[in-house]
Design brief:
binds S-adenosylmethionine, about 260 residues, alpha/beta
Length: about 260
C-alpha cells in the first residue's frame, strides 16, 4: 500500500434514525448530542464518495503538510478525518480540530483517546464566524462545513484561512453545491436522494432531513466557490472530485 493511503474507514456508530419518525413542527438541523451519537453512520450513508473524499484528503495533506506547522480540520465533527490523517502525515505536524459543537468535540476526544494516535490532537470548541483561529498552517481541511457558514460571513472566514496559511500551504475544501441550470439542479438532487434511498433511508427520513437542513445548509454554485477562493488570494484552485452536486477542491496559496 502506498505511504499516503490511510487505513479503510470503519464505523461502529449506532444507526442514524434521527428522522425516521414523522415529527410535528419544523426543527432546524442541529449538531447536538443526538446527532453526534450517530454522526459516523449518518455521514457515510449520506455523503457520496465519503471514503474517497477522506482518502484524497489524506493524499493531498501528506504532500502539503510541513514539519513545525499546523494542520487544521475546521468542522472536524467526530475526528474521522484527523484519525485518517494521523498515520500518513509527518509526526512533526501539529493537528488542530475545530468545531462549534461541544457534543462533536466530546465524541472526537473520546474516539481519538481510544484509538492511540501518534500525536496529541488539540481540539477547540470554537465558532468559525467569530474568531481567527488559523496560524502557521500548511494544511487546512474543511469538509462539508463552509456550507454551514452564514453567506454574509463566508468570505471573511475563507479570508482568515488564506491569511493563516503559510506560502505553499493548501485548503482542501469539500462542499455540497447548487447548479445554475434548474433542470440539472433538479436531476442532481433526485440522484442524490436516490443514493440516500439505496443507503437505507426511507422517503420520510429523506424529506424530513431536507426540511431540517433548508435554512441551515446554504450551498453555493461551483463558480461562486471558485470565485470566492480566488477573491481572497488563492492562486491555484482545482476540483479534485465530483459527484453531481458534491465537489472536493484544493486551493493553494502560492508565494
Ligand atoms: C457536515 S459536518 C462536517 C463533517 C466532517 N468534516 C467529516 O469529514 O466527516 C459539519 C461540522 O461543522 C460544524 N460547524 C458548523 N458550523 C460551524 C461553525 N460556525 N463553526 C465551527 N464549526 C461549525 C458542525 O458542528 C459539524 O460538526
Amino acid at each position: 500500500m502506498p505511504d499516503h493511503d490511510p487505513p479503510p474507514l470503519s464505523s461502529t456508530a449506532p444507526r442514524d434514525e434521527l428522522f425516521a419518525t414523522p415529527a410535528a413542527g419544523n426543527n432546524d438541523f442541529r449538531f447536538d448530542q443526538k446527532t453526534a451519537a450517530v454522526f459516523d453512520d449518518m455521514v457515510t450513508r449520506s455523503v457520496p464518495l465519503y471514503d474517497e473524499i477522506q482518502r484524497t484528503t489524506c493524499e493531498l495533506a501528506a504532500d502539503f503538510a510541513v514539519d513545525g506547522s499546523n494542520l487544521y480540520d475546521l468542522g472536524c465533527s467526530t475526528a474521522t478525518t484527523l484519525m485518517m490523517l494521523d498515520p500518513v502525515v509527518s509526526p512533526g505536524v501539529r493537528f488542530v480540530g475545530v468545531d462549534n459543537s461541544p457534543d462533536m468535540i466530546t465524541k472526537a476526544r473520546s474516539k481519538v483517546g481510544s484509538a492511540g494516535l501518534t500525536r496529541i490532537v488539540d481540539f477547540k470548541v470554537a465558532d468559525l464566524h467569530d474568531e481567527q483561529l488559523i496560524e502557521n498552517a500548511s494544511v487546512v481541511v474543511m469538509i462539508l462545513t463552509l456550507q454551514f457558514i452564514r453567506p454574509l460571513l463566508r468570505e471573511r472566514v475563507v479570508q482568515r484561512i488564506y491569511d493563516g496559511l503559510n506560502d505553499n500551504g493548501c485548503l482542501i475544501l469539500v462542499e455540497k453545491q447548487t447548479m445554475e441550470s434548474s433542470l440539472l439542479n433538479r436531476l442532481f438532487i433526485r440522484y442524490y436522494y436516490d443514493l440516500k434511498a439505496r443507503h437505507g433511508y426511507s422517503a420520510v427520513e429523506i424529506a424530513q432531513k431536507r426540511e431540517a437542513l433548508e435554512n441551515v445548509l446554504i450551498p453555493y454554485r461551483p463558480e461562486e466557490n471558485r470565485a470566492l477562493l480566488h477573491q481572497v488570494g488563492f492562486r491555484h484552485v482545482e476540483e479534485t472530485l465530483r459527484w453531481y452536486n458534491f465537489a472536493a477542491m484544493v486551493a493553494v496559496k502560492a508565494s
